[in-house]
């Protein structure tokens, strides 16, 4: 992968996103929403699938939403939770992988990235 230059603002966003993922519960929530696709899940269904209830789930959703990794939208009497657009997820993973093996002495060593 080639080296990409990121602005300080971009790095701040990535840092806040990685910090938000620093909990096994939040990782579970995000992965569950990614699996659900663009339709998302109701907050109740999300809690059931993740095994997280009430105020604990609300707390984790607020952190993920503040980092731009999920959205919540009221639809009638339900709150629908959705993972961020795939370009947001891709940018986060690309930020890490763009430097993979950049200092390896040979191209063969860098091939696993």
UniProtKB/TrEMBL annotation:
Gene3D superfamilies: Winged helix-like DNA-binding domain superfamily/Winged helix DNA-binding domain. Transmembrane segments: none annotated. InterPro entries: ArsR-like_HTH, HTH_ArsR_DNA-bd_dom, Metal_resp_trans_reg, WH-like_DNA-bd_sf, WH_DNA-bd_sf. The keyword Transcription applies. One of its GO terms (molecular function) is DNA binding. Keywords: DNA-binding, Transcription, Transcription regulation. The keyword DNA-binding applies. It comes from the Bacteria. PROSITE patterns: HTH_ARSR_2 (PS50987). Coiled coil: none annotated. Residues 6-103 form the HTH arsR-type domain. This is HTH arsR-type domain-containing protein. It comes from Aliiroseovarius pelagivivens. The lineage of its organism: Bacteria, Pseudomonadati, Pseudomonadota, Alphaproteobacteria, Rhodobacterales.
